[in-house]
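Q: I'm writing up a methods section and want to include an example of the input and output format. Could you take the sequence below and give the corresponding predicted structure tokens, formatted cleanly so I can copy it straight into the document?
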Amino acid sequence: MSDVTPVPQSRRERRALEEAQRTGVTVTPVVVPMSQPVPLALTTPVATAPRVAPVMKAAPRPAPRKKKSFGARIFPAFAMLFAGALLVGVSVPANAFIDPDVDAALDAPAAISLPAQSLEVDAAAEAAAVERGEFRTTSYAQLLQKKYGNVSYNYAVTTGAVRWPFPYSVPISSGYGERAAPCRGCSSVHHGIDFTPGAGAPIYAIASGTVSYTEVSDSGFGNQVMIDHVIKGQKVSSFYGHMAMKSSPLKIGDKVEVGDLVGLVGATGVATGPHLHFEIWLDGVQTNPYVWLKANTIN
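A: Here is the clean output for your methods example:
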């Protein structure tokens, strides 16, 4: 058995042999005895690639710090001062800041000097007796009654082409114009006059004409009729309201003559009692019926 054994090749030596085989250069491996160390002079140098120094990049320079403004530098100090003042304000009683002398001066009442007044009274004078007068109240309805209720509604019946709605003199309970509403739902401005001959009294047409409107209702003017006339060349309409239910035989378009039956006195619709609500319209405008009848009724 030989005393010399091949030296195990390292990874670098194997690469050197492979490179020599590729380039044609013979490389003889060195064999040394196992008992002796391999001398450094016997080793064959192996060509290695030159080492390249790594490229060192310069570290980025830190961004320059922004200089604080004057206000930003002094704000913390002011904040601390404000917090301290607030602490003192809420912890110290208010009267600790008041001067006792000033406080006493404020509480002392001001001295006001007024001239003295005197009144000389005759020794023989006696106190006059005071009498309490009477007080009376007047309602709005009473005021309207005084204003409109004292009007005289006397009239004389006629038998001519224009007549009153009754062939005899009939009391008029409410005139034309402002008034105190006699009931809930009644008007405070009366556009007609109210005749009160009693329930069931017959009502007659004041002039010849044509029926232009009729209505039978439980509200408003109840059973009502309107008749159109031509009087002295002017269109005149007469209106009859609150008549007894179904007491009028008239229909729209019927021709009537002066004195024909229109209906019976009733209290239909909104009414306080049996009466005839009578109106006069001149060319579509309401007017005072009492004044108009007084001026136009003839024998």
